Each structure stands twice: as structure tokens, then as C-alpha cells.
Amino acid sequence: MTAGLLFDLMMALAVLGTAAWTLAARTQFAAVIGFVATGLLLSLVWVRLGAVDVALTEAAIGAGATGVIILYVVARLRGGTAEISAATPSRAQRALAALLAVAVGGVLALAVLNLPDPAPSLAEAALAGSAPLGLGNPVSAVLMAHRGLDTLLESVVLVFAVLAVWSMAADHRWGGAPGPVFRREESGPLSLLARVLPPVGIVVGIYIAWVGADAPGGKFQGGTILAAMWILPWIAGLARPPSITDWRLRLMIAAGPLTFLCVGLAGFAVADGFLSYPPSFAKPLILLIEAAMTLSVAAALACLIAGPPERRLPPESMAADRR
Amino acid sequence: MTQLLLLAAALVLLTVLAGLWRVLRGPQRADRLMAAQLLCTGGIAALLLVAAAYGIEAIVDVALLLALLGAFTSVAFVMAARLVGSR
Fold this sequence. Notes:
A: 323 residues; B: mainly alpha; flat
């Protein structure tokens, strides 16, 4: 196990080092890059721990989506020095927060070190419970069936997050298109990448969402890739975001939670109650929810990255959007 | 064979961590970004080696995802930098 031990030691030191450095970074850009690098290294750690599902999520949402969201926040906050310093907690508050974080981390580490051997685990129960649903991936079985309510609430949170971002808009911009306008790139590396990568990325995104039933993957990871594949042509100026009043956009964002809720309510009629699936028909229902959720995650993440509406569409183009 | 592959992964990681120094030090944004790209590419290589070492195919999917999002994130960084510059 020497090579494995070497690998683990290096990873642990690298993660701790980048995390500490990210906290101490002087410029915001450097901090965001440090954050993304930490997330990337963390996903390698999750792979080493055998949690490939978590590694995928960390790489897609932790490093990718969250990194880009924070990045555009940084870009927007330029020039808002007064607002930033007003919102920055005082030195004492930060020291207290650090103390609390260290205490929680320390207690957690102590708890993990004092676990009995073998550690108590629900893995056997989860594995046994996934077969009757027709799912090969016990993580998906837990997320969609055994702890379905948590996942449903998570999916609703995503809709609320989009609403919160949109409500940051000034009154006169309500109904406009989200995000800044990017100059249209007709040639050059960005335009090439924005044309070549999305066809590949869309296939991979759908694949990752689809494979989640039987192997690590799922709606959140797949949806993140799909969102990225829309953001790319957007920042190249090749795609235009729809107005936030566009009913198709709103339907896309709400489709996942809505489908989840409908299937959950149908459980009263055809199975044992809310969010329970009829055994013979469990997998198709779960796949239906996963498909709708993938669409919603993609739309919601793209909206979160694009931000609040920043401009009003001219009346004629709004009319064109309606048609 | 597993030991050998893991050792190779550790070596790849070691070279990448040398690049991590540039992510942290800069001094230019471009330096950080290029080093972050290297970190991503090296991470993909290490993941593929670990996937072969343990025979877990799902790890290849993680590498695939990193390959896609790595390119995407770099572009997002460049555009955000441009957005800041134009204001």
C-alpha cells in the first residue's frame, strides 16, 4: 500500500494547503481560482475514498458551477467597494466564525476517529433496498426512494434560488433578459470552442444523467454539464438568454419539482402514500423524474450563473420571442 | 500492477502540484489560469490511472466531466476578466 499511502498523503497536504491559501488570498480572482483548485483536488480525494458519486458532484457543482457563480459575482462587484466593505464581517466576527468552524471540525474528526470497528453502516440496507426498484446504483435509490422527500425539497430550493437571484433586479428591468451582453465572436478560439464543445457536452451531460440509475452520475451532475454547454455559446455572444417572463423558461425551471410532486401525490392513489412508487413501475417513474429534474437543474443553474435581469428587451424583440 | 499504476498517478500528481505553486503565486491572472488548467489536465490523467488501477469504470466518467468543465471554466474565467476590464 506504499504507493497508495504516498498518493493519500500528497492529496491531503495539497487540499489543506490550497484551502488555507484560498482563505488567505489577497485578490478575489485569486481566491476564486484557489477555490476551484481546492474543489478539483477534493474530487480526487472522494475518488480515493471510493465515493465516485460524491466526486462527480464535487467536480460538477462544487468546483465547476459554484466556482463560475462566485466568479461572476466577483466580476459584478467591481466598483462596489463601499457595499463590499459594508457586507464584510468584522475581524471579531470572522475570528468567532473560524473558532466555531475549527470546533465543529475537531469534534467531527474526534467522532470519526472513535468510531467502532466495523463502523455502523446502512450500506447493506441501501443495497438491499435498491434491487426491488430496478436501480443498480444504491445512491440513486436512496436519493429517489428512501429519502425522496429530501431530494424533492432540494429540487424546490433550486427554484427558490432562481427567484431570489431574479428578485435582485431593479423594478424597471423586470421582464428583461438576465446577465450582461457579450460581444458576438464570429471567429477566434472562443467562437470555435462555443461551437465545437456543446454537441459533445450535451451528449455527455445526458449520458451522465441517464447512467445515474445504474452507476455514479445523475440529474445534478448531468444538468450542470448541460448548463455549462449553454453558458459557453452565451458568453461567446452566439446565444441570447430568453426574457425571464418567457413561459418556456419558467416551465423548464419548474418542470422537475412539478413532476416530482405529481408523481409523489400519485403515490397516494397507486402505492402506499406520498412519494412511494408502485413496485412494478418504480424505475420508469424514477427515470421520468430524473429526466425532468435534469432539465430543471440545467435551466436553474444557467439562470443562477447569468444572474438577475440587467436590461430590458426592446419591444419588437419581445414580440418576436412570444411568436 | 495496481501498485505501479498508483505510483504513476502519484508521480503525475506530484508534477501537477509543482504547477499548483503557480496557481497560488501568480503573479498574473494568466499564470494562475494556465496552472489551474494544468491541474485539471493532470487531475484527469491521475483519475484515469486510478480508474485502471482499481478497475472502476465510473472514475472514467469523472475524468470525462473534468475534461468538459475544465475547458468551460477557463473560458468563463477569461470572459469574467474581460467583463471586469471593460467596466
